[in-house]
Amino acid sequence: xxxxxxxxPGPAEALRTAEIAEPAPGAGELxxxxxxxxxGFVDTLFRSGVFDLPAPSVPGLEITGRVHRxxxxxxxxxxxxxxxxxxxxxxxxxxxxxxxxxxxxxSSMVIPLPADADLAMTAAVLIxxxxxxMALHDLARVDTSDSVLVLGGGGVGAxxxxxxxxxxxxxxxxxxxxxxxxxxxxxxWIHLTPADLLERTVGxxxxxxxxxxxxxxxxxxxxxxxxxxxxxxGRHVILGNASGDDPVVSTDSAWHGTRxxxxxxxxxxxxxxPDRIRTVLAxxxxxxxxxxxxxxxxxxxxxxxxxxxxxxxxxxxxPPKTVLAVSDFSAV
Length: 332
Ligand SMILES: NC(=O)c1ccc[n+]([C@@H]2O[C@H](COP(=O)([O-])OP(=O)(O)OC[C@H]3O[C@@H](n4cnc5c(N)ncnc54)[C@H](OP(=O)(O)O)[C@@H]3O)[C@@H](O)[C@H]2O)c1
Fold this sequence. Notes:
There is one protein chain. By secondary structure, this protein is α/β, with parallel strands linked by helices. It has two domains: 145 residues, Alpha-Beta Complex (Quinone Oxidoreductase, Chain A, domain 1); 137 residues, Rossmann fold (3-Layer(aba) Sandwich). It has ten helices and 15 strands. Strands 3, 4, 5, 6, 7, 14 and 15 form a seven-stranded mixed beta sheet that branches. Strands 10-9-8-11-12-13 form a six-stranded parallel beta sheet, sandwiched between helices. Strand 11, helix 6 and strand 12 form a beta-alpha-beta unit. The two termini are 20 Å apart. NADP nicotinamide-adenine-dinucleotide phosphate (NAP) binds next to helix 1, helix 2, helix 3 and helix 6.
């Protein structure tokens, strides 16, 4: 089969197109023929070796497609069935990831999709949708009176804004990048602010009270500033450090400010709570199918252009989300 393989972790050029053996399903696993594979910033961390993954490996943690082969002990799936899946146990092993014609998934991380599901749009919302949903609901436990500050307008940030909007919460303030400004329609009730006006905007929108929730996949100085903008009993959810900077937040400041610092890593927790992940995955895919959860500015590119997508992610020039078109079986 055709796949993108990383022989040695390194820059984007490490992503090479190769012909490799089609994977076979182990017990409890499915082999899925990939229609679309999502690309996220996290893939660049695996590819470059920031996160350790035994080489050679096939990157890609989220796909849509159809079931090809069913492993021993798997019930409820059959060949040809359309599905969405989270893969590779989030990088725990050098398995057959999503940048390939066929990928292996554990059945606990696979959900069936309707026959008419939009497979590109569904692939675009899987990891970011599940992450954003769990940040808002499992951790921050938002309600309708909460003000939510979202840092970053990339994949996770865009999904968080949208899911907060439909949750609904009281107010959403989003730190606008150039892309976010372009993508949010005029008239939306979401308050967009350039980073340099963050304190002023939060002060104006919340009447000086501060925000109840921060959802933060960026880190760096934005994290430090957002932490100081929390209202009493505020919750700051850490999802990642796209800036590359993980600043220290003192526990004294949590105590003195009566605020909570919390974290979520799907990769760190998914294998321990598969039922919860699968439930949220199904909810997110259903919202996408009903057109409620959409990924604005979605780019669909051929599999062998993935190195260019990684470069753009690292240079902050990528669209909010890109999916790789792998196999087209829309007519089947
Ligand atoms: N916790 C989890 O389970 C989970 C799940 C998925 C992703 N993640 C993590 O979340 C992070 C974001 O992933 P993504 O796919 O959303 O990435 P992305 O699409 O590349 O978005 C990254 C965002 O961070 C912003 N950013 C990057 N560097 C910055 C800097 N120096 N200062 C200010 N803003 C900066 C970018 O702003 P601009 O738009 O202005 O460039 C962009 O909005 C990654 O670290 C990823 O590993 C975690």
